[in-house]
Design brief:
- This protein folds into 4 domains: 3-145, P-loop containing nucleotide triphosphate hydrolases (Rossmann fold), CATH 3.40.50.300; 151-203, no CATH class; 207-333, Arc Repressor Mutant, subunit A, CATH 1.10.10; 342-433, Trna Endonuclease, Chain: A, domain 1 (3-Layer(aba) Sandwich), CATH 3.40.1350.
- The protein has 15 helices and 18 strands.
- The protein has helices at 12-20, 38-51, 74-82, 104-114, 131-137, 151-157, 184-194, 207-227, 238-250, 258-267, 281-294, 323-330, 337-351, 388-399, 428-433; strands at 3-4, 7-8, 27-31, 59-63, 91-96, 117-123, 141-145, 161-164, 172-175, 181-183, 255-256, 298-305, 310-320, 355-361, 364-372, 375-384, 406-413, 424-427.
- The strands form 4 sheets. The chain has an 8-stranded mixed sheet with strand order 11-13-12-14-15-16-17-18, sandwiched between helices. It has a 5-stranded parallel sheet with strand order 4-5-6-3-7, with helices on both faces.
Length: 434
């Protein structure tokens, strides 16, 4: 999330979580892909603290991407922080992109134990929450996972105004800052094309400028966070990494295994059955895929067998964190719209706090099982519910589930939203605007 006219735009989903843990013992750890808005979220939290009466001198912010701090050692950082402590007053400590500081775990644990402070951290790599880190803090942290903009946030950030029809038809009109009218479907097409990276606000949704910004983000993730990451000696092949990224991006929503990726790479002479150390090539692919998951470029979703009541170890799916990045890599196309819509819905469910798996029941598949507290909802996602064959294909897996939890089909197009056998039919764009 970037600033427009020097104003921070709201990310209420995440800010409310930070506020709920203010002045509580757990270290607040904000994770997510680079440039999804983590630094701006911390800035919003600092604004909240100031507005609630916290003195400016009680707030200390360090961004380890800044040249001012990125050469500091752990000892330097500890001395710097201790030098800002005010006797008898709590320190609010914000540490941005902390994974760049080697040995940072010792510093954070020391601050937590020795100082009266409220600590907020961001990181662009899941290694930040490795088992080693968990050991240091012994469970005394809370993770807030940040994602690129939702469709609702996309409309807000890019200055679109949504108005519902006065005729009570449920239809929406969208207006740009200049008063130009769009349909909601046209605005959604822009979201599918450009994605939800907040930095694209500066592009004005102009294609060439957007691609330049997305290329910069992609290169940072690939070259700085993966290929040049300390301690990852086996991840030094940019051609292999790019092929794996392209494969996963091209196969969002398809069941995928490491062996499938290996076979594809072998057919293109990019990989042999075993690497030079004699280890199976799947181990090499697994290392690259793990790195992609750790940088939050892709997310893996496991399958859950509803009859066997267990997670399946094979043939999960991968979804890409942002459609703009996917379009940068593959070019914009609408030939796999069904999987693209699945991708959008998956991340929307994560934003809403659900744990998400794919459902398997016999030979049928349910796109998503979403669980939050005691709530469970089964979702199917489809382009069109008006074609009889498509309608039956989407309803059949939900009918096969023999429990009383809510079942929903999300569809981009439908002439009727009347329930079918107790299964709700919900227009996808209405769901995204909720």
């Amino acid at each position: 999330m970037l600033t427009i006219h020097h104003q921070l735009l709201p990310r209420d989903i995440y800010l409310s979580k930070l506020k709920s843990f203010q002045d509580c013992e757990p270290v607040k750890v904000v994770t997510g892909i680079r440039r999804c808005g983590k630094s701006s979220l911390l800035a919003l939290m600092r604004e909240h603290l100031l507005a609630s009466g916290i003195a400016r001198e009680q707030i200390l912010s360090i961004n380890f991407e800044s040249i001012q701090y990125n050469t500091m050692s752990v000892a330097d950082v500890c001395n710097f922080v201790h030098g800002h402590v005010l006797p008898g007053r709590r320190l609010y400590l914000f540490l941005d992109e902390l994974q760049r500081l080697e040995g940072w775990e010792n510093a954070v644990n020391s601050f937590r134990v020795d100082l009266d402070c409220d600590i907020y951290i961001t990181g662009s790599n899941a290694c930040l929450l490795s088992s080693e880190y968990s050991t240091y803090l012994a469970g005394r942290y809370v993770e807030i996972r940040m994602l690129p903009l939702s469709f609702r946030e996309f409309l807000l950030f890019h200055g679109f105004t949504v108005k519902e029809s006065r005729l009570g038809t449920g239809r929406h009109s969208v207006f740009t800052r200049d008063g130009e009218a769009l349909t909601l479907e046209e605005a959604f097409s822009l979201y599918l094309r450009y994605g939800g990276m907040p930095g694209l606000i500066d592009s004005g949704l102009e294609q060439e400028r957007s691609l330049i910004l997305l290329e910069g983000l992609y290169n940072t993730v690939v070259f700085r966070d993966i290929l040049r990451r300390p301690g990852e000696g086996q991840l030094r092949n940019p051609a292999l990494l790019e092929k794996i990224i392209l494969f996963l991006a091209d196969n969002i929503g398809n069941t995928t295994s490491l062996r499938t990726i290996c076979n594809t790479l072998a057919s293109e002479d990019l990989m042999q059955a075993r690497n030079k150390n004699g280890k199976p090539a799947t181990q090499t692919v697994a290392a690259y895929v793990k790195a992609l998951l750790q940088t939050y470029l892709f997310y893996e979703v496991k399958r859950f067998d509803l009859k066997g009541k267990e997670l399946l170890r094979t043939l999960g799916k991968y979804y890409m964190v942002d459609m703009g990045l996917r379009n940068f890599l593959l070019g914009y196309r609408d030939t796999d719209t069904g999987h693209i819509l699945e991708n959008i819905v998956y991340f929307e469910l994560l934003r809403r706090g659900y744990a998400v798996t794919i459902g398997k029941i016999g030979d049928k598949e349910i796109d998503f099982i979403a669980i939050r507290d005691r709530e469970k909802i089964y979702y199917q996602v489809t382009m069109d519910m008006d074609d009889p064959k498509t309608r039956e294909r989407e309803l059949a897996p939900l009918r096969a589930v023999q429990d009383n939890y809510e079942k929903v089909v999300l569809t981009l197009r439908t002439l009727s939203t009347a329930p079918a056998d107790g299964i709700k039919i919900v227009p996808l764009l209405d769901f995204l605007l909720q």
